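Hey, can you fold this?
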Amino acid sequence: MFCRNQTTRATVARGSALEMEIRRGKFRKSDFLHASSQDSDIQKKIDHEIRMRDGACKLLAACSQRDQALEAAKSLQTCSTRIMAYMSELQRMKEAQVMQNVPRRSSDAGPMDGRLPCKGKVAISDLRIPLMWKDTEYFKNKGELHRCAVFCLLQLGGEIFDTDMVMVDRTLTDICFDNTIVFNEASPGFELRVELYSCCSEDDYSAGSTPRKLASKLSSSLGRSAGKKLRAAMEPGACSPVSNGGAAPLLLPVPSVPGPKYHLLAHTTLSLSHVQDSFRTHDFTISGNEECSYWLPLYGSMCCRLAAQPHCMTQQMMGGWLKVKQCGGDPQTWTKVYAVLKATSLFCYQRQEDVEANVEPALTIGINKETRIRASEKDPHSKGQNICISNRYGGEEVTHTLNTESREDTHRWMEAFWQHFYDMSQWRQCCDDLMKIELPSPRKPAPVTPKQGSLYHEMAPLSTPSCEGLLLQDNAVSAEIRALLSSYYSDSY
């Protein structure tokens, strides 16, 4: 395989072992090229996150303000999680490719019907995590004031999103995340993992640039050659990929960078059974204990709205011309309509243009889990074949008869109906009614976090010295962080 002009084009070398296997019929060239394209796309994502992680490491080492350091540490944690998720996805793809090429015995083969359910959107919003403070802390405002920076990571398959960072202390009764996060390629067997990360915000993060200053002083004292070696050893940003003799870069673990570090405080996993078009409470598994600096008194539950929209509920699954016999009318009277199978109905329009124009359909036939559909014998008065759709309304059975132009059309419509029923059986309650999902607005870089908490924080004097040189350095770092976060969020959403 060769990559040309930074594209995903793959070429099978002539005379190679792979070409011989393709000629023998053990591999299909189209499958190989498709798999190579997918591998290249995931590798590009990994390379992008590695670069972002490298930049976050450098920024974290240079930060001298608390808000800057917390945002940089959050980006570092998110990038590292994405890298691990992409690597796991790449490994699963490799294993699937190997299993596809392994010959199977007839006894090992699965069912002949290789039907797969449709994909769909899964959205989580209105995330609330209740806190359980002691009476002396919340009502009497006594004891040591403990503040933490928290955010959530949400992962579904290879998609990972993060929420905004929130500062939490005893003045808050709930941790609230207003983000609406949508996963666009979910299957009905999805597992949505929600992780809550916390970091104590009471430490002094102005020491991030101390190793660099120390190296500068020592380099001037030890001499030029020894000083260069010392500066190279103490230079932050060592999390860059290491050269591997011209091969692919080695992915090293995140190094220990001076500054704040986020820790997993709680987590849970949501699935299709948790989907409901309302606000629900879910159990939260808590990690750590009161001895940890990042500890927060969680109640042990999480509240959110988890909604799903299968593609069979939002997209046109089948469309074409049919003839419909009016119920109770003349058996020889047929009306030609343009039918569209979507959601829980078969919409019948007088013209095909009415679909795009959002014109009210002339007839709507219910298609749900209780609907019965069968193909009848060939109509002697027609070239095609009849399809009977039966529904019960108030204890009475109502049957609509459709007629197709040919036997091939009948087969296509019947296959579309069976696939539609299969999709509804897999997505279950999500196909009863269309759940509403409010698409999130384009995300902007997080501004500097305003002060939150009690009156103590509003009155506390600043401990950072107001030096002109330090102020210029902080402004430069802030600009660099804003540029990094702007690129980060624009690529993520």
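Oh, and this one too while you're at it.
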Amino acid sequence: MLGARGGWQALRRCASLPRAVRLRVREALGAREPVGEVKVQGWVRSVRSQKEVLFLHINDGSSLESLQVVADPSLENRDLTFGSAVEVQGKLVKSPHKMQNMELKAETIRVVGPCDTWLFPLKMKERHPLEYVRQFPHLRCRNNTLGSLLRIRSEATAAIHSFFQDNGYVHIHTPIITSNDCEGAGELFQIETSNEARESAEKTHFFNVPAFLTVSGQLHLEVMAGAFTHVFTFGPTFRAENSQSRRHLAEFYMVEAELSFTESLQDIMQVMEDLLKTATSTVLSKCPYDVELFHKYIAPAQKTKDRLEQMLKNKFVTISYNEAVEILKQASQTFTFKPEWGCDLQTEHEKYLVKHCGDVPVFVINYPYDLKPFYMRDNEDGPQHTVAAVDLLVPGIGELCGGSLREERLPFLESRLQRLGLVDAYQWYLDLRKFGSVPHGGFGMGFERYLQYILGVDNIKDVIPFPRFSHSCLL
């Protein structure tokens, strides 16, 4: 009995010994008081050894700022280099330096994973161009700029979801594999199994019909809006555009929403404006230092911060397509594409319109009937035949969002599909107009373009973790 009791008391004594509290770097930096025993894990961003002290800066991705570690030089070893993964245990104490609130006084430093600094393509204290780090998709997240981008991207994603959920929208997972071409542009990735690709003589389809990667979740959202009133989706979309330009990706993310019982394009526009302002305010408040990095060092000439302040405090401007064409025709600027009624607005036109309207976001409404897809609502407006469509143009980017009222009237929709020879393919879509159809509309926003807009990033490939584009699919 005594032996058992003695063992239990020893176990209790062991359990009462102080255990190191594991902290993320962000938590350590934000601590208000010293903490006795802490453990921080991360990657070394800098090493500086002096005669009487060893300084490290470690980062674990939780913040732009790294945590300074102060240690005895005896803890240094040859594996403790820039890029190595470490676990540091010690005391969190007040830092004597004004630039940092707390620092970690190390008692032990364990190298979890060494890093060969000669071969590692990222170098200590070098500001690598975005074009350079793009070559290393498996390592570029360790770069400060991409780290900031990905934290901002995460907060923006959460902010968008919160906006819709706070306003009563139901989140729908629309399919990635589809038999529909929502845009009608034909720039689709067709899906084949490896066997189908080999057996081209007798063409059979896994799904019995041709299947594609989705270009939009809109048509599936329209189905769901017929039961849930307000719905949204946020997921990957795909375009097989043979382009390596700064504006195009083969895989990107779209935010899309549909609203039932709405007969006004203004209702759709108000949701767009509220979404943009709410998400941007949230990102600016939650990621101030990450956003500042872009505004100060990546795109200082673009004055993105000033533009965002203007956007947040001003009402968006609204002009018609007719007015837009007239503004462009009267412009002193020479355009590569001559502005004409009935032609689509090019990026150069869109950017000019934004500047003309005071460098704030601009809604352009009521586009020519023949320019837009079959599902947009006919305005029945005489010789200059238009549809109830809207594009949102923003500074530095051009088109950010596109939306419309949907054609809910069966005869109008049926007539247009017949002219296009699409009645059989979209019989299900016609059915929606037969069984409890209501006036409705919606919009889509390119998420990567949104990030370019708020950060001032010139190339869309630099605002997505793993860019896919023509002739490039690394990893």
